[in-house]
Amino acid sequence: MELILATAECDPAVDIICAPSNVNELFEFREAMFSIGGFPITRTVFLILMIAVIVSGLLFFGLRKKSVLPGKLQTMVEGLVSFVKEGIAIDIIGPEGAKYAPWLISVFLFALVGNLYEVTPGVNFPVTSRMALPVMLAAITWVVFVVAGIKRQGIGYFTGIIWPKSVPLALRPLVGLIEFVSTLFIRPLTLAVRLFANLVAGHLMLTLLLVSGWVFMSNAGNIGFKAGIGVAWFVMGLGIFVFEIVVIMLQAYIITLLSAVYVQTSLYPEH
Is 163 helix (H, G, I), strand (E, B) or coil? Predict the structure, then answer.
């Protein structure tokens, strides 16, 4: 799909890089693939549903049998679950982190699979590059850390933010206002934007570089030495491809880590 969009109006004899007239076309898929009960299933919706299927399948088949000598799938799934539960939930939140582990595992795997679509042949579209998905994850995180703070501190959760006793009295109104806006509004916003912006940038760069490289090289007979530009674009695209795999895993880790940090600060504000 991205290949068709990016090359539809591309003339390698004139253009230096192939791009659609509107880059939003690389992220918006409004045409329904099929309908379920009158509800249209677009490519984006289908990929989101597949995340649920993939994650559920991984957890079910990877954890349903505890073998003494685990296979590759069990080893991988147990490693991911242990990494999030022990390395993030408990290490960051503390002993109480174990009860937040299922949520954090869900956030991590959802973000990871959604990000990996970017480098999946035949898909090449990270659904997390659509702002609605990062916003959804950030909104759930917001609810979890606010509810955790209220359950632990009651109304003191909000008064502690608005009137921080560790700050000199004269500065409390200003610091309290900053903390209130930062904690309840900026945190979820930056959590969503960080994931969204990184995946948008990566998807755009990969599509334009790899597609341009392919178009220029496939038209070598018509454009001559200019096809060398395509080789450069393609090599750069492959480099970005490898780099994006690192970014994909890192962004899934960061959104999970920050979610745990926000819960920890709600439970233990003195820290």
Answer: coil
